[in-house]
From TrEMBL:
Family note: Belongs to the glycosyltransferase 2 family.
Species annotation: Streptosporangium fragile
Pfam families: Glycos_transf_2
Protein name: Glycosyltransferase 2-like domain-containing protein
Signal sequence, renumbered to the chain: none
Residue ranges annotated for the Glycosyltransferase 2-like domain, each copy included: 11-161
């Protein structure tokens, strides 16, 4: 039952591929005042969907049509009906009890609330030294190229007002989705607030992320978005010149 006195509604989007064993833990952390939970199933071969539905009869299930976490989130966001959309993982690493911090940041004026493990109050039980180094380098590069002041680029716990979905214009398939969101949010001039978050270890099962392969996808995204920005600038200048 809803107990928080919000005037807006909150959807939680959970991408899940073979996470049946983790879902009882994940759903147990979700606040009672969430209006909608959408599980985006990546064609799981275990009981993910059945377990999820049994845990939450009000659950909405979206079966993704493509592949990858990016595709899953994009399709889940499109299906969400809430004023606010929160994205969390289904492996037990993101704690639903932190959702209130994200929603509060948005209610206080942020457009985009970005989780960070690397600011005071945040942390990780999960990230390896090599991934931590890679993330730090990619974060630094993004900050340099886009003038942002992010402390943690590649983290999957974020929330935003659904009205900004068009500005984010998401069009990627893989784990680079968080990077794309962070860059596009900044480029769209959204008010971004970082929210300290503590990442826990995956409870059961194996990670789908491959540090080198997915790190390179993130790097390509960072560089490609810079080219997109340059192309857009030239196009705008041409349009101005033609109009003058
Ligand atoms: N629907 C769907 N969900 C996915 C897909 N790939 C990953 N996920 C989910 O996305 C979330 C994050 O994936 P993980 O494999 O834990 O990767 P990660 O959290 O980035 O990496 P770790 O820190 O190693 O756990 C989990 O809930 C996965 O089940 C996919 O292709 N489709
Ligand atoms: Mg994980």
């Amino acid at each position: 039952m809803r107990s928080a006195p919000f005037t807006f509604s909150v959807s939680v989007v959970v991408p899940a591929m073979n996470e049946a064993e983790n879902l009882p833990h994940v759903f147990a952390t979700l606040p009672s005042w969430i209006d909608e939970v959408i599980l985006v199933d990546g064609n799981s071969t275990d009981d993910t969907v059945a377990v999820a539905k049994a845990l939450r009869p009000d659950l909405r299930v979206v079966t993704q049509t493509g592949r990858g976490k990016g595709n899953a989130l994009t399709e889940g966001f499109a299906a969400a009906t809430g004023d606010i959309i929160v994205m969390i993982d289904a492996d037990g690493s993101t704690d639903g009890r932190e959702i209130i911090s994200f929603v509060t940041a948005l209610a206080e004026g942020a457009d985009f609330a970005k989780g960070t493990r690397c600011a005071p109050g945040g942390g990780s039980d999960d990230i390896s030294p090599i991934r931590s180094l890679g993330n730090a380098m990619l974060t630094k590069l993004t900050n340099r190229l886009y003038g942002t002041r992010y402390t943690d680029l590649c983290y999957g716990y974020n929330a935003f007002w659904a009205r900004h979905l068009d500005a984010l214009n998401l069009d990627c398939d893989g784990f680079e989705i968080e990077t794309l969101m962070n860059i596009r949010a900044a480029q769209a001039g959204l008010v971004i607030r970082e929210v300290p978050s503590h990442e826990r270890s995956r409870i059961h099962g194996a990670s789908n992320l491959h540090a080198v392969r997915d790190g390179l996808r993130v790097l390509r995204t960072i560089l490609r978005e810079r080219d997109r920005r340059a192309t857009r600038r030239v196009k705008l200048q041409r349009e101005h010149a033609t109009a003058a």
